Amino acid sequence: MKVFSSEYLFDYSWEEVSTANWRKYCPWNDKSPHVIAVDTLSREVDPSTGILRTERLITCHQQAPAWVISLLGGSNTSHVYETSYVSPSEKRVTMCSTNISWANILRVRETVTYQPDLTTSSPGHERTRFTQDAKITALCGGWQKIRTKIEEASVERFSENARRGREGFEAVLEMSRRVFGEEREREKDKMR
User: N or C: which end of the chain has fewer CB within 10 A?
Assistant: First the structure.
């Protein structure tokens, strides 16, 4: 098993980040063209905790090496199952995802959290801490060298996708702030 971990500070409030998170794969994000579809399977609020729980299926186009597809079968379309929890009282978003496609060969378990960063935030300049951890396990029986190579290559690809994902989400956050700011100004003008 290999582990990928990263942290990042977004110069946006938790409210902005947790709201924009639902638009992470929209047309404003040109860094994630591999995401073909995001389907919401279920969404419910726990009446006792106020936590919003959402299950989604994310469909991606991942370019697998041709030799892998010819040897193992499958296609370049893959599916990821994601469960997210939004706790408004704790100001915490937790997203847990796992691959469905190729799960008999490679298991990827990712956990992402967004929380206010209290150490660097100040009034009028709130920041949100993003943490990401992924456990990547190749399931190739006793072939340790092959398993290690698959895990190393997967961590490298995961790292690159994570970097592009953060860049794309920054664009979504920027556009969201602008669009919602313009809408607030229009509403203020109507009230005058």
Answer: C
Reading the block at residue 104, the tokens are: 């008999």
Residues of 20-36 as b/e, b for ≥16 C-beta within 10 angstroms?
A: bbebbbbebbebbeebe
* Sheet hosting strand 35-45, strand order edge to edge: 2-10, 128-138, 106-116, 92-99, 77-87, 52-61, 35-45
User: pTM to 2 decimals?
Assistant: 0.88
Q: Identify residue 140 by its one-letter amino acid code.
A: C
Whether the predicted pLDDT of 160 surpasses 80: yes
Residue 189: predicted pLDDT? 86
